[in-house]
Design a protein that fits this description.
The chain is of the alpha+beta class. The protein folds into two domains: 61 residues, Arc Repressor Mutant, subunit A (Orthogonal Bundle); 210 residues, Beta-Lactamase, CATH 3.30.450.40. The longest helix has 21 residues.
Length: 286
Amino acid sequence: MEVINFLAAHPTESFTLSELAGHLGLSNGSAHRVLTMLTDARFLTRHVKHKTYSLGMALVAVGQAALEKHRGLDVARREMARLTSEIRGQCIASTFVDDELLLLAKEGLPQTHDVLMRVGERRPFVPPVGLGKIAWSDEQEMESYFAKTPAGMAVAVKTRMRESLELIRQRGYAMASIGDVLRNFSQAAILPVGQRRDTAYWSRVNDLLARLTPNEVQLIDAKEAAQTGLGHMSAQVFAPNGAVVFELTLSGIPAGMSPSEIEQYADRLRAAAAIVTAETHGRAPR
């Protein structure tokens, strides 16, 4: 599974046995057995001359079957493409898998490559990542989420996170300003497939989380966003039972926008999420 996940995050690239073993922390012997099995099943393709491995054709059928099961992602891609054709920025769809936020799809061109992510990359699901999802969760899930808050985080930031939940529910989207700390966190938190979260990783991530400002966690309104600069905004897509299936997040938003322009961006993003929810027979909780 780690081999497939790693190659899925690098869909146009090929790797030798030793390169895959190194990326995934496998011995060459273990890697050889796994790669041989996957190649025999046509899940991987082996280049005879270069002796490299890449995704195989059998995975196309698996991917198509998964899209049939989770057709909301196809609808989301369509709406994301429409959105980014009308407004400047990049839109991504991400979901929550256990304790991780997983990037599923992206459309549009970013205004910066500082935090450009590849499909398949992951981030830890720790505060304030995923506040938009938590806003629609039950009390138990909320408290489990906030229990992961780094001890060194400022009281003002912890308070802003708590207070933002009702705000997100009322307006239907989350948004935060971009600052050096948030930008550095976004880069440091990305976990490429095949890498492990070791002590050094968590030390760096927790240090950055502890230095976030309230505006980098959540902005109160469009007027504040216009004053401080808007980093990203996200709207949720809901399942038939009202649970959050995934998020649509708009980033690379032009600087210098007026409050009314920011509200237009928010309305368009929220509408895209609502369309995906409706076409997949989901419903937003009251």
